[in-house]
Amino acid sequence: MRRFLYLLHDLFVLCLIRLFQCLLFFLPEGAKEIVGLYIGRACFLLLKERRSVALRNVGRVFKALKEGERRDLVRRCFERMGVNFVELLCLPFVKDLKERFSVHGLTHIREALEERKNIILLAFHFSNWELMGLLSKILGTKIGAVARPLKGHWLLNRSVNRLRSSLGLHVIPHKGSLKEITRCMAEGIPIAILADQREKRSKAVFVDFFGEKVPTTKTIAILSLRKDCVVIPVYLEREGFMRYRFIVSKPLPIEREGSRERLIATNTRQANAFLEDLILKHPEEWFWVHRRWARRH
Fold this sequence. Notes:
Radius of gyration: 19 Å
Strand content: 15-25%
Number of strands: 9
Shape: globular
Largest sheet: 7 strands, mixed
Number of domains: 2
């Protein structure tokens, strides 16, 4: 019965999204962005639990901010997410993607491909991260992406994965992903992994993130050691509505000498440190609504 209710829910949501997508088609670009901003503001007002999570998270990082300043930052975060949603719906209508997306630092990936190295693309819930798959079209090579499913929502999950595949990604389910990751690496396919998801405590390594130990995935560190991978951070820098610049950073300096436990912790901490710098530069672009830290309240 529950599965049937989930199916009905997903059908209803997808029909609404499709209708909304058709309406967006007739709007000028500036109006589309405004619609996204107002969707974000509405979610900021209506989604009280997520707003509270975001406010607590901002308080952990920016302790000197006053309450009003924290609310303003969280509101801007919600606005960005609203714009992200509208951009994804408008993506099928966009014909000039090459003019809208530029890349800085692409040589870091190209050199690793030429040297036939195993590549991990370090990604984060930052800016419009769902558009990261377009890097596959720019590179001219397939990219594997490890993704967690939307629990219980089979139809919505299939729709989201279709979108990701249309961008050029080979979607790898998170559960039991190691075998498929290994196969892809053997074929020279770079693997994109989100480094800032909250991991189960039983599977996590606890490393610092803004001064607190947080449960973080071991997968990136383990793969980098086991498969001798080069780990390259990649993120999108917003330049306007549906206009972005891919920033491909220098590979992280992976440590390879020492005990396994220390190497996993040290190399995982490097990923968190990179994200810390990114958040401090562009705080409104991160996904503050995620329960990244352990619950206190």
